[in-house]
Amino acid sequence: MDSLETAADRERLRRVVIDPVSRVEGHGKVTLLLDEEDHVREARLHIVEFRGFEVFIQGRPYWEVPVMVQRLCGICPVSHHLAASKAMDCVLGARITRSAEKLRRLMHYGQILQSHALHFFHLSSPDLLFGFDSEVGKRNIVGVAAAHPEVARQGVLLRKFGQEVIRATAGKRIHGTGSVPGGMNRHLAVEDRDALRADIDRMVEWSRTAVALVKQLHQADPALYDEFGRFPAKLMSLVRADGGMDLYHGALRFRDADGKILLDQVPDQAYRSVIREQVKPWSYMKFPYLEQLGPEEGWYQVGPLARVQNCDFIPTPLAESERLEFIDYGKGEPVRATLAYHWARMIEMLHAAEVIRDLLGDGDLLEGPLMGDGVRGNEGVGIIEAPRGTLIHHYQVGDDDLVTMCNLIVSTTHNNQAMNTAVREVARRYLDGRKLTEGLLNHIEVAIRAYDPCLSCATHALGKMPLVLELAAANGEVLDRVVRD
Amino acid sequence: MGGTFLFDGQPVPFEDGQTILQAARAAGRYIPHLCWHPDFPPHGSCKLCIVKVGGRHVSSCALPARDGMEVESNTPEINGERRALLQMLFVEGNHFCPSCEKSGNCQLQALAYELDMSSARFAHFFPDRPVDASHPDVLLDFNRCIFCELCVRASRDVDGKGVFALTDRGIHKHLVVNAESGRLADTDFAVTDRAADICPVGVILRKRVGFAVPIGERKYDRASISTVAMEKGE
What we know:
The complex is a heterodimer. Chain A is of the alpha+beta class.
């Protein structure tokens, strides 16, 4: 079967562009090349932004890095803040205190909760509740609020709660400064703890409702949910030493497309011994791969779908019960459907709510030493499971305290090949040979959206991005044009 | 002796030898400033303390108060000029408040808030100014220098070391370290020097503690720079 990555006779084909892809974080575009019979011959997801953080962090003092690099993103800055802090902990050789680790965990699971809620309710639920080619004017969170007010209300308040957890631990809802190399600079205030505790049981309950909603969607239309954008893929995520899910810290585990463990307990500091990155001329985003399998075979998925299936168990009871049901749904096979990302994501949101509930009862959040120390080194790697998947920060620091090398592999980068594969699967299945409509093109966006990509790791631009579709002949003549304001 | 002058229409008493700025402060009236510091003689270079006396612009930190003067300070015209000076300072250096460890303790940032500066207005210069991390305890980030010369004066007049100097002129003016190599590590500068704690912006920084106090809980996060100056005398 044609891979659809690069067509052989590109100059003779018509080009359709989805630019920008909407209801995702950041900016990207999709190009489709079609032949005279409207058969899709090439499909690519392009990342059109170039950031350059890895270069301009060089020459800056190491203690500034966790604050500076989080500016990569306005949606999950906590992930960058903490991954950089963890890497710098290694540079300092610091043993992190109990209080500091628990505060960071609380911050991180607050981040998971708010980001997952934002993605599911604000960005994806309009497609899932109304249909991919439903009336475009209502296919947004405002439409959800009108048709399903309680669903929208819970989504908004779940996200708000997660943001409050972040504010209480990091100092601000966005771009806080609570975590520093070697530990934290603040405890949780008693009044913040009490306010969060007053609401957490409801958040757990609403997260259960969200899981139930996704399950209902799968059960109502299994033909769509089980098949849409389905393809085999390898998986990568952090797991604990005992194989349990841990989104803050762990070692790398890879599974092959059949679910068999390929590599396990790869220490975070050794990521470079197993992961390589490939550059392709048509995208600013690199293509990471498992070195032992090479660039063609070594690509893998990260994020909720990978994590929920990669771990041996989830260490909170409600989420673990949902995980077991999810695994059963695969009937012995890994669950491969692209839309199952939403299901897995909601299981993780439930897990995050449970973790937050448990942590809020811990007195170490309110008092105890915040800073650890140790023997200073010159290199450190910090890996964390960000909402969208595995996030790797790697730094070298000179004896003068300035950063000399920075390598960042963000979650969406790991999913680059998987998202391109999803786009091609959907193009092949739903668009091939048909006259393109907005609704059909939205199928492509639905597949991309399922990954919750943060295409630039940039500020969120919900609902403000216009979509312009142009169908052009090979000679450049515009044959058809659809504009969405 | 001494006397009284009118400050924005209100009488302000002064003693002989007091400048307009000193007398105004003593009377609880704030005048913005960057290069002036209560522990040092007036310098008159930043011009943020500019006021209008008898229709003429003067530096209030340097002009002795005189009986019967009519001083205009907190007016839209004067504040507009101060804001323009701030905007020029912001574009002349590399001032990235979001990731700057001095955020919340920086007088330039605090004054920008005080004077409602909402944009940089002018084109940024984006100068290339490498940091000096050679000293074991102190980092110099020249990107943020506003040429107030407080470090120059503190090192020369208090520490007796003369570690810092401004060199070149006009648009090429910049802060240098007084060593053959140009590196702070090759001077007798110490973290206990008066010059180590005098910088009103984020040039002279103690290493490794930049974010020990959370942003949001710092001096000018809690109160405006005019309030801090009037209530704490800083």
